[in-house]
Write a structure and sequence with these properties.
It is built from 28 helices and 17 strands. The protein is an alpha/beta fold and about 725 residues long.
Length: about 725
């Protein structure tokens, strides 16, 4: 008697051997996006260039590697939320293997891949053998691996060894041609042999047309690869990602493991009854995911030649799931292809690259990406229910192109877009203060006759590197960069100089002796002013809490150094007790709130002074003190956000340090103009960075109290409606 469950299990692999409508449609969307970007006035003549296509493929190499692993995991109805943290942890393992153990790059790579396999086996044991939901197991990893990376690296940026540059190198031209032609030959032979095997086995044979189309497709793909890389060589990350993709396609379509993966995803119980060892396959899939996560960690570290545990691979798991689902893999498991994932990753990368070239704000990029993800899931549901036709699906897939086309043509309907003279690359635009940086920089640049382009990295180092590449593709001759990581940004300087561009570090230092200029507030002075005011307020005695910004951040380090140096004599005499000093990822106000609450618990409810590196963390401190119903606690912040200025006037906060954004941003634009004009900028001396001396332009800071807060309204820094507690001449 035939078991219908086993029939369905047997049929499942066959479904995975075909390019379904999702894959074909996504391929069409990708072609349409590339054609659109090649025609838009703002990107015409720059998108389909060798340099930009190389950048695009290099930028998506890390995402593609982890997305292929995620495809296997989702196909068996699993998930891995620890990917981003795993990339950070394995990157730290590689860096420590070189820095602490003195190992060469090959040994560091092997150790890192082994660590990734161990992580995958750990997940596979909990999910496969103990039956714990993958969501819970990998969510634990999401937390633990990031924390482990921060602990192991002491929350600082780690540099890779000189020999590690091989992982971000370029394959010679001759080797590139050889690899492409050999792979093409293997592909042609594979198609030919498949046709002969099917004929010999008495199965329906491949028609001459089918064979010809498959071979023609391979020839066209090989031609496209050679058109991009034939004269310059293929980058190693692209070669590795491509190899992983080919291996993934082969594993799913040609191996027993692939058939078992589809069977488990289709119906785990039926797969078990048919003799498939579900636990073993689950373990293998998670080990593959772990190894590919480690490989992605190596590629990410190689691209910027460093590892920063706090932001390396940040939320990469969500990007991977997005790419996989966009590529047509069902989130319910059992249906999907690696080919679809490759196309989904390319669509995802093209969206980011195209919007950067179009000058679309990164916050809008998040909205568009989220919309496309939701659309992909909708299409999966429609296909599963068979409730629509191909025309409707085609229209749905075309929707992502509409906003890009409207924005692209709308901005440049009458003329070609002007190439930017200067690119302004901010770490983030998701805080009030940085909107002011953008406003004042653009205003001053326009006054100076400069065309500027703005980028925001959302505190993601890998994204900022991609944006540096995009800015250079646009033709910017000066890059004004607020780095997400001061040490890793040395790579940006090297990249810009190779392309004939200059680099100005903005607000935060870039640790490179080759840096052209550094424009910043005097961050050390900020810490000194806060600490001196706290000493006056408390009489130099009491329990202090120090709220530092993100670990490894140059500004946070300088402000906190100002605290320590100023407070040191009082701490030495035991007059001041620093009861808690904590760094806060992304300068989080919520984390600062928890830190102050913990400090109050430790001290039995008494704190005399709180010094915060920025306004946001000071707001967290204000809230914690209010919740504890304490009074007369000294609280200092920096940046002079409107809410904090209002707190100063109302008495909820003691002082705020004004790091006036207008002169800082304007000065950066003026330095860029001087560079373009070939004249030296006015500097206040030099600063020692990476063993060299870099010209520095320092902007003064000042203390804001109730007595002078009204001056911020008069200068236009804040509006009267934003600071209602501030009256003429001072507080209420």
């Amino acid at each position: 008697m035939t078991n219908p469950k086993l029939e369905r299990v047997a049929e499942r692999p066959a479904a995975g051997r075909k390019l379904d409508i999702n894959t074909w449609a996504m391929g069409g969307v990708l072609v349409a996006m590339w054609a659109l970007l090649a025609l838009l006035p703002a990107t015409r003549g720059m998108f389909l260039t060798q340099g930009n296509v190389t950048n695009l493929l290099s930028q998506c190499s890390v995402l593609l590697v982890v997305s292929i692993g995620m495809t296997f995991v989702i196909l068996i109805r699993g998930i891995d939320l620890s990917v981003g943290a795993g990339v950070a942890l394995t990157g730290v393992v590689a860096a420590l293997a070189q820095d602490r153990l003195g190992l060469s790059a090959p040994w560091a790579i092997l150790i890192t891949l082994a660590a990734g396999a161990a992580i995958g086996a750990w997940h596979g044991f909990w999910v496969g053998w103990l039956g714990i939901p993958a969501f819970i197991v990998t969510l634990a990893g999401f937390k633990a691996y990031r924390g482990g990376a921060l602990v192991a690296s002491d929350a600082t940026s780690l540099q890779m060894g000189d020999d590690f540059a091989c992982i971000n190198g370029t394959i010679p031209v001759a080797a590139t041609w050889t690899i492409v032609l050999v792979v093409l030959a293997i592909g042609v032979v594979t198609v030919w042999n498949e046709a002969r095997r099917r004929e010999a086995a008495g199965l329906p044979g491949l028609t001459t047309t089918t064979v010809a189309l498959r071979i023609a497709g391979q020839v066209l793909l090989a031609g496209a690869v050679l058109a991009v890389f034939g004269s310059r060589g293929v980058p190693v990350p692209v070669l590795i990602a491509g190899s992983v993709a080919v291996a993934g396609v082969f594993a799913l379509r040609r191996t027993r493991l692939g058939r078992e993966v589809y069977a488990i995803g289709g119906n785990p119980e039926a797969a078990r009854l048919s003799g498939i060892d579900v636990k073993r396959v689950t373990m293998i899939v998670y080990i593959v995911m772990g190894v590919l996560t480690a490989l992605a960690g190596l590629l990410a570290a190689g691209r910027i030649n460093s590892v920063t545990a706090s932001n390396q691979g940040y939320l990469l798991e969500l990007d991977a799931v997005t790419a996989v689902v966009i590529g047509g893999t069902s989130i319910a498991g059992g249906r999907g292809t690696v080919t679809g994932t490759v196309l989904g990753t390319l669509v995802f990368a093209t969206l980011a690259n195209g919007m950067s070239l179009l000058g679309i704000d990164s916050n809008w990029q998040l909205i568009f990406t989220g919309g496309i993800l939701l659309l992909a899931v909708l299409i999966d549901v429609v296909l599963k229910g068979r409730k629509s036709n191909k025309l409707v699906l085609g229209l749905l897939f075309a929707l992502p192109l509409i906003p890009m086309a409207v924005i692209g043509f709308g901005r440049n309907a009458k003329s070609e877009a002007k190439r930017p003279d200067v690119a302004f690359l901010l770490a983030t635009l998701q805080e009030e203060r940085y909107q002011k940086d953008l406003k004042y920089f653009d205003l001053r640049a326009a006054e100076l006759g400069l065309v500027s382009a703005t980028f925001s990295a959302d505190n993601d180092g890998a994204k900022q590197l991609s944006q540096v590449e995009d800015a250079l593709t646009l033709g910017a001759k000066v890059l004004v960069i607020q780095p997400t990581d001061s040490k890793a940004a040395a790579t940006y300087v090297q990249l810009a100089h190779r392309r004939g561009a200059k680099v100005v570090a903005y607000d935060r230092s870039i640790v490179s002796r080759e840096l052209d200029y550094y424009v910043s507030h005097d961050s050390y002075r900020v810490g000194v002013l806060q600490a001196e005011a706290a000493i006056r307020h408390t009489g130099g005695k009491g329990k202090f809490v120090l709220l530092s910004g993100q670990a490894g951040h140059s500004v946070a380090a300088e402000i906190t150094r100002g605290y320590r140096d100023t407070l040191a004599p009082f701490v030495a005499r035991a007059d001041i007790d620093i009861v808690m000093e904590q760094s806060h990822s992304a300068w989080s106000a919520e984390q600062a709130l928890r830190t102050v609450e913990d400090a109050l618990t430790r001290t039995g409810g008494r704190v005399d002074a709180i010094l915060a590196n920025n306004s946001g963390m000071a707001r967290g401190a204000v809230k914690a003190i209010e919740n504890a119903r304490l009074e007369h606690v000294f609280i200092a912040g920096a940046d002079a956000d409107a809410a904090n200025v209002n707190f100063v006037c109302s008495g909820q906060q003691t002082i705020e340090i004004l790091k006036d954004i207008q002169p800082l941003a304007a000065t950066a634009a003026e330095v860029a103009k001087a560079i373009l004009s070939g004249t030296p900028a006015n500097t206040a001396g030099t600063i020692a960075l990476d063993g060299g001396q870099v010209p520095v332009v320092a902007v003064r800071v000042e203390v804001i109290t109730p007595a002078n807060a009204k001056s911020l309204v008069d200068s236009g820094f804040v509006s009267a409606s934003e600071v209602p507690a501030c009256k003429q001449g001072g507080a209420q």
